[in-house]
Amino acid sequence: MFDDFSKRTKAIRAALELAQERRWSDISLAEIAGAAGLSLADLRREFTSKSGILRAFQAEVDAETLAKARGAAPEQSPRDRLFDIIMTRFELMAPYKPALARIHADLGCHPGEAAPLFCSTLISQYWMLAGAGAKLEGVGACIRVTGLGAIYAKVFRVWLDDASPGLDRTMAALDRKLRKGERLVACLEQAHENLCRFACGWVPRGWGGRRDGEAATQSPRPAGGAAPAPTG
């Protein structure tokens, strides 16, 4: 990952190398450009801000994770596939863990700078779910993406502090939270389905529909005998 020599890649690598030694908030765009061997104009053509560099890093990790994800075995559940994909993601990010730890700590003190990463983090979870073969249609998609975003944020913090070679603490935390999240999502989806059934089965009088068991009545024709105009 990040083994090409494009201006974009050079800037991302330079930013992460600087972040290993210094606080993220103290690193300027000019310093990132200089460390990457670029002009500030070149950097601006690639990114809109320092947060943009981090979003580009997330997107590259997304793509590499999906490229390296193993094909799902027939007996694997979506939860197991998702577990493998997220652990692959952590393995890919391992060389950048010191920089990511410092960036994470610094952004925790600067929520305004962290805010632009919220959407890109949810996008990453969307793609991880897609790689696991999860359903991503309807209200359930929003529940799954948001839920996985909360799970990933918690497990990411465990991963940052997990120095074990096999990432035992990270795997245990991820497995536990995915199982709990799976049960919660099932409950929320069932509640949403029940609410939809209730709403569809009960229509107040005067709203153009009828209650269950109420006979349909023919709509009166408007004055002049003309039929109502079609709506579709």
User: How is the biggest beta sheet arranged?
Assistant: none
Poorly predicted regions: 215-232
Looking at CATH, the homologous superfamily of one domain is Tetracycline Repressor, domain 2
CATH fold category name of one domain: Tetracycline Repressor, domain 2
Summed up, the helix count is 10
Structural shape: globular
Supply Rg. Answer: 25 Å
Strand percentage = under 5%
* Average residue pLDDT: 85
Percent of residues in helical segments?
55-70%
For this structure, what is the CATH class of one domain? Mainly Alpha
Number of strands: 0
Q: Can you write the helix and strand succession as a string?
A: HHHHHHHHHH
The quaternary organization reads as single chain
* CATH architectural arrangement of one domain: Orthogonal Bundle
Distance between the termini: 52 Å
Structural class: mainly alpha
Describe the structure.
- This protein is an all-alpha fold.
- The protein has a domain of about 150 residues: Tetracycline Repressor, domain 2 (Orthogonal Bundle), CATH 1.10.357.
- The protein contains 10 helices and no strands.
- The protein starts with 6 loop residues before the first helix and ends in a 31-residue tail after the last helix.
